[in-house]
Amino acid sequence: MMKPIQMVDLKSQYEKIKLQINAGIQEVIDSAVFIKGGKVVEFQHQLEEYLHVKHVIPVGNGTDALQISLMALGFRPGDEIITPTFTFIATAEVVALLGLTPVVVDVDPDTFNISLESIRAAITSRTKAIVPVHLFGQNADMEAILDLAREFDLKVIEDACQSIGSVYTFSDGRVVHSGCMGDIGCTSFFPSKNLGCYGDGGAIFTNNDELASKIQAIANHGMVVRYHHDLVGVNSRLDSIQAAILDVKLKYLDEYIASRQRAAAFYDNAFAECDKITIPYRNTNSTHVFHQYTIKLNGVDRSALQNYLSELGIPAMVYYPVPLHLQKAYKNSRYREGDFPIAEMLSSCVLSLPMHTELDDEQLEYITKGVLEFIEKK
């Protein structure tokens, strides 16, 4: 009998590593060191080694990681930060919370990542940074973005919350992990992420010693020396139990990525001959770790397809139905509907299918058959 299909099947994943996870949690409980314990330091060092990055600073969640990064770079109210309009709200949210000005731009129709031409067109004398989002598990065109940032003396903060484990190859042959190319990189350990804990968690990456020290202080109430607050800070930390879970799961990350890529290849092959479906594009410079498997529907009633799949017990999600420039909280007189045609087109036609480490061939066959049956009936 086929297992029920989940958008993300964390329970089945846990069952395979249950003994290691439980032992790690028990070790923390036995130590009674729940905050800033040895497990946090252990995981930090393991992740630094995995990413080949000098500094990993664990924090409370991915949104905190983005906010603290902006704080560490010393931007001032009115400074403009460029980010894509087709993404999760957190990137613009932290910019606005700090009194900075989010400047959203359009994306590439194939990769869904921020468009280099749109970035260049949006740069003004007030622009201070670019926040590319490596959406759905594939890196943005970082070599070109970094070149542009150097040209205009801009900082680059990578939102790698969906792309941990992916790598980018530069034209000189260098291969660098997602989140480790710009001035600062950020990730989330939300449970559904490719490397996820069993609660909230996040981390910041940098190769800059001075920035690392500042980030560590800001995340700890602005303290460098205990009870001496040199900076305005926040309280954001990864707890020891979550670190113990992540320390186990990091050992399996490459295996998890391979499982996702295998599922993506199954989807690709099933949909290859269907002209109503555009499968995810692969940038030759970047590996794709498939946090989501997102297709574009061509002339297909998306809501009707979702309903049909739901009746078959197949979940499917829309990431993201409303681009940032059309969100009520971020409406701005400088933007109007139609300004970012690619993002608006994608919001109307993308659909994400189940994607996780535990998908088997029977489930994948059932999912793809359901999608194709609906399309062929129409």
Protein model, in words:
By secondary structure, this protein is an alpha/beta fold. It has 13 helices and 14 strands. The strands form four sheets. The protein has a seven-stranded mixed β-sheet with strand order 1-9-8-5-4-2-3, sandwiched between helices. Helix 4 (62-72) packs across helix 8 (209-219) and helix 10 packs parallel to helix 13. It is globular and about 70 Å long. The two termini are 30 Å apart.
List keywords for this structure.
single chain; 378 residues; alpha/beta; seven-stranded mixed sheet; three-stranded antiparallel sheet; 13 helices; 14 strands; 39% helix; globular
Element layout with pairings:
Blueprint: H1 10-16, H2 18-31, H3 38-51, E1 55-59, H4 62-72, E2 80-84, H5 90-97, E3 101-105, H6 116-122, E4 127-130, H7 142-152, E5 155-159, E6 167-169, E7 175-177, E8 184-188, E9 202-206, H8 209-219, E10 223-225, E11 228-229, H9 240-250, H10 253-271, E12 277-278, E13 293-297, H11 302-311, H12 341-349, E14 350-353, H13 361-377
Parallel strand pairs: 2-3, 2-4, 4-5, 5-8
Antiparallel strand pairs: 1-9, 6-7, 8-9, 10-11, 12-13, 13-14
Beginning-to-end CA distance, first to last residue: 30 Å
The ordered string of helix (H) and strand (E) elements is: HHHEHEHEHEHEEEEEHEEHHEEHHEH
Number of strands: 14
Q: How confident is the prediction overall: mean pLDDT?
A: 97
Strand arrangement in the largest pleated sheet: 1-9-8-5-4-2-3
Percentage beta strand:
5-15%
Helix content: 25-40%
Count of helical regions: 13
Unreliable stretches covering 5 or more consecutive residues: none
